[in-house]
Design a protein that fits this description.
This protein has 65 residues and is α+β, with helices and mostly antiparallel strands. The protein has two helices and three strands; from the N terminus they run βαββα. The chain has a three-stranded antiparallel beta sheet with strand order 1-3-2. Strand 2 and strand 3 form a beta hairpin. The mean pLDDT is 95. This is MerR family transcriptional regulator.
Length: 65
Amino acid sequence: MANLFDQNRNYVLGDDELNLIGDRDKLAQWRHKSMGPAFYRLGRKIIYRGADLNAWAEARRVEGG
């Protein structure tokens, strides 16, 4: 599996790399609906772990056929 995100990095809202999976509004919708990648809510700050983002992306991988 090729990693889209750095496994050992934490990403916060506003990091450009998160735009790869969705804009700020889309990520908020997914969090509200419990649909998106796993995240931490620390106070008002949202944090995504690179390993969780990669696992979420890999689960959505589609094989060509």
